[in-house]
Amino acid sequence: MGCFFSRRSDRRDRASSGPDDEARGKDGVAVGRYSWDLREKVDPKDYMLTGMKDVTAGRLPGKLNGQQFVIQDCENCNIYVFDHSATVNIDDCSNCRIVLGPVKGSVFFRDCKNVKCAVACQQFRARDCSKMDVFLCCSTQPIIESSSGMKFGCFQYYYPELTFHFKDAGLSIFNNNWSNVHDFSPVPGESNWSLLPEDATVLDYVPLPDADSEFSTIRVSTEAGKSIVPLTRAARGKGSDESCLIVFFSDDYTTANARKLIDKATGKGFVLIQTKEVSIRPEDVKRVFQSNAEGLSEFITKGQVVALELNGDGVVEACRRIAIEVFAGTKVREIVLSLEFLPRPTSPRTVWPFF
């Protein structure tokens, strides 16, 4: 056992180095001001929109920086949140149009009606809501409860900071379960939710910011071709019996390369069914890629892979040609396979590493 001795002067030195400043209290005793006392005070009103009617409101980039946000008791408003946040709760709103930048956690609508919105989040929930049109990017399965007249479409939006906001929120643009909705309170013989028309665009439901508003300086686009999140057909089904799986292995340009192939393939008339960004195990590589698995194990250690499913007659050969054309002479490592010839799970417990 050892002992530690301190001289009185040492204690004085440490005590005097703690506070950033000193003041005298009523009894003449020194009162220190510490660094946390000097932090900028947070006003809760900066993170709320409440009781608004017939106005355009929201937050510009950099105003939330990952904080929680609340929208409540708003009527007939256009609301634009061009920033990333932790969670967003939206309560008792009606006849509003809402755009939410990426949300790291949940977006929870409660007691809302006639709301049209574009939302990117990790979790989407709606309870006691009616007649909502939602353009959604959601990492997990969207959930509705005690709600009706809910319609969903694939998120289609762009503003310059959106890519960075997705990264700040920890969301992948390739993990989007927008059409895989779970209803906790189904009604026998009826459906509380459906899909928006396939040709629907955000602009049909949510207007661009007014020219005289503070948000008019944000360069916004609702065109599918400019959307940060790829437009997928998902639950709408497939128009052809032929589908193609394309897997991009991790490097600094995985996202850009995947988007490049998507643009080329959809430009030729093929349809993007679904996308996924996941980690895969060595045994998955052997099971899925079989004769193509040799040499791939080293690539999966570098990070997550991006998988795309494209559909259309002749899509397998077309994508092989596109890959050769676009990535010839580069170090891009991708693999193109026909889904028709991939092995199927041998039991219900088998989990696919992609879709």
From TrEMBL:
Coiled-coil annotated spans: none
Superkingdom, taxonomy of origin: Eukaryota
Membrane topology: Lipid-anchor
Entries under SUPFAM superfamilies matching the protein: C-terminal domain of adenylylcyclase associated protein, Nucleoside diphosphate kinase, NDK
Amino-acid positions noted as binding GTP in the UniProt annotation, renumbered to this chain: G105, S106, Q122, Q123, F124, R125
Pfam families: TBCC
Family note: Belongs to the TBCC family. Belongs to the NDK family.
Protein name as catalogued: Protein XRP2
Organism annotation: Scleropages formosus
